[in-house]
Design brief:
- α1 runs antiparallel to α2, α3 packs antiparallel against α4 (142-153) and α6 (188-199) packs across α7 (260-275).
- It is elongated, with a radius of gyration of 26 Å.
- It has helices at 10-20, 23-35, 77-91, 142-153, 174-177, 188-199, 260-275; strands at 39-41, 47-49, 101-104, 106-107, 115-116, 122-124, 132-133, 162-165, 204-207, 214-217, 224-229, 235-239, 247-250.
- Helices cover 30% and strands 16% of the residues.
- The chain has 279 residues and is of the alpha+beta class.
- It binds zinc ion.
- Zinc ion (ZN) binds next to loops.
């Protein structure tokens, strides 16, 4: 998975500071910024801004911009929690050189099998192609807690690699970084209601549990249909009580509707699909 590292709210302030600095101050300021993870230093020693993925001088790609995890696992939110805890750890240690990534090793020193070790971690810096031993132990920190959570989710195996990209200081909150926090004009139950309207007399619609899906039913209460987003991010219509038995995918060629007319179009498409469930 790739961790976007390009946006950083500190970058404009740093640019301003660099432009205000005297030429004699500039190198020192860039050194300090690279040390803090506010800029990145290439193996050729050039210091680059965080919004570059290749060195401005030698054009080598910026290293350690991607996590490395055991290939059989999808850690998802657990990995993001670990990343947040690492960010906190280094935010609390401004004198310490902030690494681009931290690698963890597997220990077999515990009775209940292999686990991610909080000690003997490896720090990766962008100006070196190999890591260096990280001298501190993360024990009793949020990092340690996050490693335990990962191990509880899936026990690591000896030889597994876990390298986590450390965000820069002042990195935006995660929802914004990931493009979450997006607002949709209509919820899925609105789609179901638009479909009921298109289907006409005797049809009804409602919101499913905490709005996670829409419900649609025909004259006399049947068929009872469920409108939901499946594991492939497709909008599908299926039987309420047997959602996997038979489903029809609803195409959204223009994406999610944001205007009443667009919602009506989607409602008609769902209505067409709903008719295929009639006896
Ligand atoms: Zn370079």
């Amino acid at each position: 998975m790739s961790q976007p590292m390009t946006r950083n709210t500190a970058t404009p302030a740093l640019d301003y500071l660099l432009s205000a600095a005297l030429p004699s101050q500039r190198a020192e300021l860039a050194d300090l910024a690279a040390h803090q993870g506010l800029m990145w230093r290439c193996v050729c020693r050039t210091v680059n801004t965080l919004n570059t993925d290749a060195c401005s001088a030698c054009e080598k790609p910026r290293p350690y911009t991607k996590d490395v995890t055991p290939p059989r696992y999808e850690y998802g939110e657990l990995l993001e929690d670990l990343r947040d805890r690492l960010a906190e750890w280094f935010d609390d240690e401004p004198k310490e050189r902030r690494p681009a990534a931290i690698g963890f090793r597997v220990t077999t020193e515990y009775d209940d099998g292999p686990a991610w070790a909080t000690w003997d971690a490896t720090a990766y810096f962008t100006d070196a192609w190999i890591g260096t031993p990280y001298p501190k132990d993360f024990e009793r920190s949020g990092v340690a807690d996050a490693l335990v959570e990962l191990g509880d989710f899936e026990q690591p195996q000896v030889g597994d690699t876990l390298i986590v990209v450390v965000p820069p200081p002042f990195a935006p909150e995660r929802p914004e970084e990931k493009g979450l926090g997006r607002e949709y004009a209509y919820g899925i139950s609105d789609y179901a209601r638009a479909a009921a309207e298109a289907l006409g007399d005797g049809w009804g619609a409602d919101s499913g549990y905490i709005g996670a899906y829409g419900l649609l039913w025909g004259p006399g209460g049947t068929p009872e249909l469920r409108l939901y987003v499946d594991d492939y991010d497709d909008l599908v219509l299926g039987w309420k009580h047997y959602p996997d038995r038979e489903t029809v995918t609803i195409d959204l060629p223009d994406g999610a509707p944001s205007l009443p007319a667009e919602l009506r179009t989607v409602g008609k498409a769902i209505a067409k699909a709903a008719r295929t469930f009639l006896p």
